Amino acid sequence: MRTRKKKWAAGELENNPRILRNESEYAGRLTEIVGEGKPLHLEIGCGKGRFIIETSRRNPDINYVAVERDETILATAARRAEENGAGAVVFIAADINDGLQFINSGEVSRLYINFCDPWSRKKKWAKRRLTHDTFLQIYEKLQIPEIFFKTDNRILFEASLESLSRRGWLLENISLDLHASNMPDNIMTEYEEKFSAHGPIYRLEARMPR
């Protein structure tokens, strides 16, 4: 579904200080720009920003980068971050299919993947999943040591368990019904709040093999 354009989005993209606009200026310099001396966590597909904003507010000792390919949605997230006193988080309009080439190897210490497209309608689409071997190779090349993953799609979750296990990632804190587990520090995304009533939320943490 295409996002409806917002008249104010162009101005937000141009003027919001949290949005990094020119890759030539921030590529390889994320730690320097966001702030040195703290771990750097990355969210792929931040949507309208609820998760990353609240996560950054609760963890002032961590820096965050949120990536979203839809610029209108990104503008909304960045505006909300400014309005709601987010912590150290910046936003980048980028597509994971381009390989996250602006990140230095070893720079990111945790990756969040929340409710990504399950690509489950056709078997040939499996390689587009953000937990497919194709993308796991990217994360491994960048030396991202851990992934926190949530989805409401059982097919995607089972496929993710298989691909991560096959590549030797250590799986921890697996939940087949996150909200029933009463996890005390779970921060919901907009999507999670809207659709969790329709079925269980699956979650896992994965540690990269050494």
Could you list the spans in which at least 5 consecutive residues all have pLDDT below 50?
none
Radius of gyration: 17 Å
Number of strands: 8
Estimated structural class: alpha/beta
Oligomer: single chain
- Average pLDDT over all residues: 93
Count of separate DSSP helical elements: 8
Major beta sheet, strand line-up: 1-4-3-2-5-6-8-7
Terminus-to-terminus distance: 40 Å
Principal-axes geometry comes out as globular
Major beta-sheet overview: 8 strands, mixed
Helix content: 25-40%
Strand and helix order:
HEHHEHEHEEHEHEHE
Percent range for β-strand residues: 15-25%
Write the layout of secondary structure elements.
Layout: H1 9-15, E1 19-20, H2 23-26, H3 30-34, E2 40-44, H4 50-58, E3 63-68, H5 71-83, E4 89-93, E5 110-114, H6 133-141, E6 146-151, H7 154-166, E7 170-175, H8 190-195, E8 202-207
Parallel strand pairs: 1-4, 2-3, 2-5, 3-4, 5-6
Antiparallel strand pairs: 6-8, 7-8
Helix pairs in contact: 1-5
Q: How would you summarize this macromolecular structure in one to three sentences?
A:
With 210 residues, the chain is of the alpha/beta class. Helix content is 31%, strand content 20%. It has helices at 9-15, 23-26, 30-34, 50-58, 71-83, 133-141, 154-166, 190-195; strands at 19-20, 40-44, 63-68, 89-93, 110-114, 146-151, 170-175, 202-207.
